[in-house]
Design brief:
about 100 residues; mainly alpha; 3 helices; about 30% helix; extended
Length: about 100
């Protein structure tokens, strides 16, 4: 499940988030993506895709087209979020390096 909301970041960089009741209690991931703004859009409006989506969106169908590696990575994240595959938490950069064989 994904919930999307466009918000204005205040000068103090603090947000208060009211989580909808349909979101289960427990660990979650928050992702922040700056919203592109054009000069002819009011400060409280969002217009168009993010630059990455605009690059990969088919102008005729509106579908996103990514390569196989990107699609596999997105599926892996969805599987981790849903609990289908375990998530490996690293406690240090050395731990991550060891897992990557560096």
């Amino acid at each position: 499940m994904t919930i999307t909301q466009t918000v204005d970041i205040p000068e103090n960089r603090r947000l208060v988030i009211d989580v909808p009741p349909e979101i289960p209690v427990g660990r979650t991931v928050l992702a922040f993506t700056p919203a592109p703004m054009s000069d002819n859009v009011a400060d409280d409006e969002f217009e168009g895709d993010c630059p990455l989506c605009a690059k990969y969106r088919d102008p005729e169908t509106g579908e996103l087209h990514f390569n196989a590696e990107t699609i596999a990575g997105m599926q892996e994240v969805e599987d981790m979020i849903s609990g289908k595959i375990p998530v490996k938490w690293h406690t240090s950069l050395d731990d991550l390096d060891e897992m990557l064989g560096l």
